Each structure stands twice: as structure tokens, then as C-alpha cells.
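Milestone M4 deliverable, item 7.
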Amino acid sequence: MADIRRLPEATINRIAAGEVVERPASAVKELVENAIDGGATQIDVSLGSGGKSLILVEDNGHGMSADALALAIERHATSKLPEGDRGNRMFQITSLGFRGEALPSIGAVAHLKLTSRMASDDSAHSLSVNGGKVSAVTPAAGPVGTRVEVRDLFFATPARLKFLKSERAETSAVSDILKRLAIAHPAIGFSLTSDGRKTFVYPPEGGEDGQLKRLGAILGRDFAENAVPVMAARDGVRLFGFAGLPTFNHATAQKQYLVVNGRPVRDKLLNGAVRGAYQDFLAGNRHPALALFIELPSEALDVNVHPAKTEVRFKDAGLIRSMIVGGLRAALAEAGHRASTTVAGQTMAAFRSGHMGGHMGDAGRQGDFAAAQNFQAPQGPSTENMGEGMAEAAAYWLSTPQAAGAMAEPAPAHLPLGLARAQLHETYVLAQTHDGFVIVDQHAAHERLVYERMKAQIAEAGIKRQILLVPEVSELEEEAALLLLSRADELAELGFVIEDFGPAQAGRKAVMLREVPAMLYGADLKLMLADMAEEMRELGAGLALKEKLEDIAGTLACHTSVRAGRRLNTDEMNALLRDMEATPNSGQCNHGRPTYVELKLADIERLFGRR
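Output delivered:
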């Protein structure tokens, strides 16, 4: 056996640096969090070569004295735990960081220069650390606040440089870190400059709408226009933020931001809760855009789960999840029949892309708004530029004797979805509003209406159960079977009466289903049990069961709703519109697709070159 020996101090520092500083983005995160904890209201970050050659972080915070500056680059030095604390406060952290390892770790693998000044000092002070070698503190010129300059990151550990990505990728990672911190702290101004070019500038935002302004600046104007406020409070925990309408969805979850006590985090529990809240509104491969903020007592939260502090652990995870699901669903219900404004934009873009010839790929869709600016009005009256089939349908309808009488009655402003004027292709209801018109997909709309009624009936009258003439015996993986049996009481409340059916054998165990919800007549019960066990394991909360039942109700609603191809009379079409106005979430079907498209007169006039 080799002799055991102590590592040299320089090696110890470089090992610590490997834990704290993985790439330029992690160094920026540590430095910016220190600036936030230092009371800064403006933080400016500059990069050279994606942070490889230069990282410069400047803030206008409280600054440090000469003595504090010398202490700041020592390992395990901190201002964020009280004097004499023996670890009692380590699990009640109210700042973004406390370990005191960022500066010495960076200094161990780079050329580090610190310049700081307190408001009470006549001048600033500066100190350098080069590969772990510390210089003396000297007077310097500088404003109140702190300036941290990092050059040649990982020059002391060249092997680490080989694992860094391209300059563009590293800059993107820094940008993402800063945006998350900017969302968490809207009262602080942030800017990022890369190789001399301004990437973004976010001024400080104050007032009641400051949070939404910051979100609009980062997530885009479309988010600000299509987000609903989320508010909930229970047992000392406060949830607030903004969530995008279901029709404003995306292919990835990149536009989901979660902040806990001012700390941007990535947490599986929170992500699962968001997915559960939108389960009735979105297909499995679509994701909402949102920013949620949770505030709770520090003793109810453990931030020391991950070295980078990007994950947290809640004392009462079930409470947090139920608040997120409940808060999001209540906010979406408040939106009523509202659909995202982007639906109309996409519709207008579809008209214009048809005019410009052929189908457009992803690049074309991204350029829809630019293309709209270059749109030229047609010369003279023509129907060639209208959507495929729309000109023919409109001409046919206008030629009917009912058209003049129907158009004579104006649509009142208090009816958001207007009055029915026609049915196109026995699938789409055309309604005139006071300032435009609406096209409704009758099947998608009625599917949502039926589904919401089924959910209301379940909530009011409970779930009717049906005894199986022959009990269903299902063999599952032992873990899945035990999970179902452990929650037999909850399952019974939802209409599933399940019992143990013999001992486990070879990792498999059988369960017997005696009663099921009456609505599940004819369903594949074995597959349903396996799916419920899988969702319980993944989501880990009682709401998973109710969500599964609602998912089944959604499938039934799809099969029992008005189908495309059915002719409706005027009264039926208007009844559908009025029901949509009175029903929560009727702006989208159960899969996140819009149930209607609204076009304003201004949009139509632009389409025909009148504006």
C-alpha cells in the first residue's frame, strides 16, 4: 500500500476549483451571486472568447474594505454566516451563497484581480491572485462597488480547457445564467457584453408590473401578452408569477423558469408539478412557458443538495407540488375562453406564406414576421391570394339568400365570440364579432366543453363505481404492485377497488381489481393499472391519480363530442359560442390546440393592403 500524505495547498485549491468552477458560466454565476448578495442594483458582465480569455463582472454594491478584500480570497471565508455559528445556520441560508470558495477557487486556476471600494472609503483597493499566488493589497482608483477581472481561465489547469465547448456555446451558457438571475431579481439591472458587442441590457424594473416587464424583455413580448398571473399562499408559503396560456406552447421546456427564495433552480418536483398542471391542456410533447416564484421560510428549504446550488430540497414537497398545480389551474381557469394572440399571428402568416409560394420550413416560420413587413398588396381584386378553399367557401356562402339577413344583425361587443354567420365545410363555425370575425373548430370546442362538464360532475357528485362481474387480475412488477396497494384508499375514492392477490414471485406480483369507475366501461384495465403505477412513481403525489382519471375523461370527451362533418343550424352554432364564453379553458382543446382563431378587422385590412 502506498504511503498516505497531505496534498500541497496549490493542488487542494485546484481540486476545489474543479468543484466550483466547471466552465466560464459557473464562474460568472458565483461572481454575480456575490454581487447580488453585496447589495448591487446594477451588474455588468463582459466576456472575451466566451469567457476563456476574459470575465469581467462590475457592480455598484456595498464594496469591501482593504482587510475584507484580503480575507475574501481565503478558502472558507464568508460574510454570510454569523460569527460563532457552529453549523446551525447552514440549513437556513437566506443569501445566494455562503461557502466562500468562489474567489480562491477562481484565483487558483486563473489570473484574478479584485478592485473594491466602500462608500465610506476615500479610495478603492486592489489585489491580484495568479494561479494561487496572492499579491499585497494596494490602493487603486475605482467607484463604489466591486470589479472582478478574471483572465486566462484554467491557464493553471490546461487539461480543463480541452473540455470547454466553442466560444459561442460558452457565451450562450453565460447568457442563460444571467437571464435566470435577471428573472429572479427584476429590481437589479443586468447587461452582457461579448467581445465588445452588447448582447443584452435589462434596466432595473420596479413597481407592480416590474416582474412582467422583465419577463417580457427576456421571454419576448408574446409572453407578456399571453401570460396570466399566478397567485397562491398556504402555511407560510407564497407562490406567484406568470404562466403562458396553453395555446402559447413550445417544443421544449427551455422557457420554464423556477425561482425559490430568489434562487433560480432546476427541480424535478417542480417540473413534474408544471407538467401535471397542464396535463389537461397540452399534448405530451408540448411545453408551456412560465416563470414561477416560491417564497418560504429558510428552515423549510435545503439549498445544499447540489454543489452549484441549482437544486433544492423541500421539507414539505407535497405542499409545494399541490400549490403549483392548484395555482396554475386556477390561473388558467380565470383566463376563460381566451386563446393566445399568437394564434392570429400564425394564421395571418399562413395566408402570407401561401401568397409567397409553397410551404415554408422552420426557417420560413421563424421569418413570418419579417415576411409580413415585406408583404405587397395584390394589384386589383383577386381571390388567388386567399387561403386554400376559403375563397370558394366564401363565394358559395355569400350567394345564399340567408347571407344578407344574417349579416344585417350587428354583433354586440359584450359577446367576445360574436354571432354565428355560417358553417364552412361542416366543420368550422364562422362568427362575426364587433371588430372582426372568429373561426371555431366545432369538434375541438365541443370536446373541451364536454370534458369540463365531466370534470365538474366528478367534483360535485363523486365517481360512480361499477362492480366487475369477473374481477380483473393483473400481474405487475412487484414495485408497481406494492405502490398501488399502498394507496388503495386513495384509489377507492377515485372508483378503483384493488386488493392483494397472492405473494410475489420472481419479481412479479398480482393485484385484483374488483370495482372501477363507471365511465371506464370497456377500457383496458391492465394497461391502466400499469400506467397509474408508473405515474405515481414518477410524479410521487396523490394528484397523479386524479390527473389520470381526468386524462381518461378527456379521451371519453373526444369520442362523445360533436364530430367534424356534422351540419349545425344557427341556434346550435350560437349555443356553442355562448357555452365557450362561459366555460373555463375553452380556448384550447384537451391537446393544446386552439379551438378558435380570431382575426381583427385591422389584420384583414393589412392582408388586403388597406393598411
